[in-house]
Amino acid sequence: MHAALFAALAAALLQVAMAGGDSKVKEIMNTCNKGSSAISQEELKAMLSMKIPSSESGKCFVGCVLEEIGMLKGGGFSSAFAEELAKAKLQEHPEELGEALKLIKKCSDEVAGYDDKCETGPKLLECIKDFASGLGIIEAISA
């Protein structure tokens, strides 16, 4: 259960945000799936499988979703928001919290200097996917 909770946190950077469970998530997705960030159902399915989008609209969709949930601010990664989220979700699980904070630090360093949500969002997801794989998180998400 703790692995699932940690996986959900790591995936919150997109996976949880796009899981489609509640009306707020659907509202965010509808808001972001317009104009230059409009994507197809196939692109959405690929993203839910942790595939990083290559199209400009897919990249901007990711950036928009992450911005709407608070993970990006001013086009850059809000590591402070991510840390607050991790601490709130994992306060009872110090080991998972430690891993989440490592993930946040690593990815914060990886995307430092990016200030365009269409670039930062996909780069952040790429970092999460790569680093989380080493921690066994992606396998937990996919299970």
N-to-C span: 12 Å
Q: How many structural domains does the protein architecture include?
A: 1
Q: Tell me the CATH topology.
A: Recoverin, domain 1
Radius of gyration: 14 Å
- What is the CATH C level class, in words? Mainly Alpha
- Report low-confidence residues grouped into runs of 5 or more: 1-10, 13-17, 137-143
Strand coverage percent: under 5%
* Total beta strand runs: 2
CATH superfamily: Pheromone/general odorant binding protein domain
Q: Which structural class do you get from the secondary structure elements?
A: mainly alpha
Number of helices: 9
The largest sheet, given as strand count, sense and whether it forms a barrel, is:
2 strands, antiparallel
Side by side, the strands of the main sheet go 1-2
How would you describe this structure to a colleague?
- The protein has 143 residues and is mostly helical.
- Helices cover 70% and strands 3% of the residues.
- It starts with a helix and ends with a helix.
- The chain has a single domain, classed as Recoverin, domain 1 (Orthogonal Bundle).
- Helix 5 (56-68) crosses helix 8 (117-135) and helix 6 packs antiparallel against helix 7.
